[in-house]
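Known limitations

Files may contain more than one protein. Parsers should not assume a single record per file. Below, a two-record file is shown to illustrate correct handling: read the sequence, read the token line, then continue until end of file.
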Amino acid sequence: MGQSTREIERKYAAPAADDMSWLSDLAGVETVASLVDRGVQDLDAVYYDTADLRLARSSATLRLRTGGTDAGWHLKLPLAGDSREEIHSPPADEVPEELRELVLARTRGAPLRPVVRIRTTRSVRELAGTGGGVLAELCLDTVRADSLLDEDGHAVWTEMEVELAEGGDPALLDDVEKVLHENGVDRAPSPSKLARALAETTPAKEAAPEPHTEVVPGSAGEQVYTYLRTQARTLVDLDPAVRRGAPDSVHRMRVACRRLRGALRSHRPVLDREVVDPLRGELKWLAGEMGAERDHEVLADRLSTGVRELPDELVLGPVAARLRAWDVAQRDATRRRTLAALDSPRYLALLDRLSELTTRPPLRAKATRMPKKVMAKALTKEFERLRRRMDRALETPPGPERDTAVHEARKAAKRLRYAAETARPALGKPARRLGKRVKAVQKVCGDHHDGVVARDMLRRLAVAANAAGETGFTWGLLHGQERAAGRAREQQLPVVWQRASAPRLRKALR
């Protein structure tokens, strides 16, 4: 597997070539003791993308670099702010299979090919601290870009970048930028060399496609479209993290699926149902395939915590060993299921449909209306659905039927919460307050459901332990604790629901 690092850098326009006196000012930045000249490097990189530049449009870059200290394949994926994740693989004649998989959600199976060659003459200076350690690297680059997309375009420019050393304090970049700004050096207009190279060598192909359907500014359609586009982008961005097993990535990707499904359902009055209803079904499929892994993560953590918090004298028999064996077997199986889904043609077809959704949004005539009334109506419908399910959950006697009713109420609470997120730009504080209170309802229902699942698994573990001649005491004890916690959640549920259904809050949304 390729080596992954977090890159934090900022790019700047080239300073005046005849005035480099500002370099001495950098040594005056707090924590910077000196600048160390590391000479000149010649770098040569060929960037790969699809013919229609799907990687570039999603702010990802894939290149094969020769020269310098990090020759080989580099995949850069966007993170928050000035950060990017960089995955480095050794030099090879073809794109490594691992990197192909990590960009699959962006390429959607389209072949990768060379699109531009960028050659850089780099002058490197290190910003060193008082102990001599490297705090950041300042590079002055002279760049030549040549299009490889059946074009003869080329461009030449000079730019500068400052990259934070691994583990460095991001505040240093602010201090350095202040010195640069005072000396007339501003941020570069392009976020990357590739973006500038594509813009200046193949300008017609660099621009992202415009939505086919007109999205009226300030309309309900624009608000829904913006939310859908954000969640679709989030899903694609999380794909590499899920494939690499990054913590919490499966959960976050499932949430993106649920938010998309919720928006497509809650806002059907402004969307063409013939288009979006099948898409909702495919999103449900994907969330379900990943759900096995996420549900196991939650359950395993809950059971392990329960055992760990028991006094030693109450843990009888090989409880930890049996729990570990179950965890390893299930974790491996659910992991394979997630990866199989992400590698399937069905998943690629879903990504194609999401791309179509965000470039040609299927908006109906009602989408041109002002958002406040449309959003308030959508919230009212979702609220009424939640109210009916909560009434049933609270009126059903304790037992399996109530457990199911509480779980159904939890799902309705999620949909209302996501609808409130979409409506927030139009409805403001009332939508935010409703979302916060409904989240509390969702949490209580979720904790209750997790306890139901945990009790079922504890019973199975107890049966297996008994069949192996082991005592079931500890499993029974944990089962009893879960039952008590479930009763407490059932008592808490009417309280949080009363706050979420307050008449004053509902009136403010109209």
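...continuing to the second record:
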Amino acid sequence: MLPSTTGAGAGTPRFDAGRPCLDLLATTHPAEHLLTPASLRTWITTTPLVPPGTPLTHVDTTWLPPFRELRDRTARLIEASLRPDGGPADDLALALAHLNARARQEPPTPHALRAPDGTLVRALRTPPTCAALLAVLARDALDLLTDPVARAGLRRCEGDNCPLVYLDTSRGRRRRWCSSEMCGNRERVARHRRRAALARA
């Protein structure tokens, strides 16, 4: 878990799903995170989709619907990849067409700058457009869904009532929870309580 402000307030942990497109899916849990331009700006910078210090003051309310729509379409495709039956074909065709269309847009153009200490740092030539950032997310989702090895690492958290999906890159792919500190800890506490109840019985 990484510290962030994508949740209700400063210091709220940010779920790191292992891919930007999966991080986008996590913005619905436990409640909607993308409610205001400010919350979207925070999410963009903490994912991160852009280099540190990128100006994002131009992000406004018109950005929210397309980000949520891409999230919804991506979620349907990810969900289908986790289901044995694959899900409804017509619905998935529409979702895929949407991602393909978004991916055709040009992503932000990076370039290198010399920092005061002499090191090279990445920056963007111009402030990123909404379409450019959606293109990054759509391409990331398509890369994930078309890579059999990466796709095989998709997992849904085994925590009670936790819908989060992550990319399992652990040794032996034995990861069970979105976060060992959150869902994993809750499961360990629940297991301890069950053992204690059995011992008392």
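Parsers that stop after the first record will miss the second one. For reference, the second record is described as follows. The longest strand covers residues 110-114.
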